[in-house]
Design goal:
Number of helices: 3
Order of helices and strands: EHEEHHE
Distance between the termini: 27 Å
Strand content: 15-25%
Number of strands: 4
């Protein structure tokens, strides 16, 4: 089951990506329930996410560069609070 993320980690992901990348679309999906009891599940219910983001900041950038921009915007969250994140990043019109 995937849920639109609403917890404190999801809210922080949303805030940081909105500030850094001014997305025209941003969906933060909590995939943690699919990973309950697996490696990286810290019991918080907010350890695994999918981010679907569209931003002009990605125009002309490779897939790797787009992921780096997202990871840079999230900073310490990716080290301290998020175990795994799938990133689907695109520029407007793609």
């Amino acid at each position: 089951m995937t849920d639109t993320a609403t917890g404190p980690v999801a809210a922080e992901i949303t805030a940081r990506l909105t500030t850094a990348l001014a997305p025209s679309r941003l969906d933060v999906i909590n995939d943690s329930a699919k990973h309950r009891g697996h490696m990286g599940d810290d019991g918080s219910g907010e350890s695994h996410f999918t981010v679907v983001i569209e931003s002009a900041a990605f125009a002309g950038k490779s897939r790797l560069d787009r992921q780096r921009l997202v990871n840079r915007a999230l900073g310490d969250l990716m080290i301290e609070r998020v175990h795994a994140m799938a990133i689907r990043a695109s520029a407007p019109g793609e």
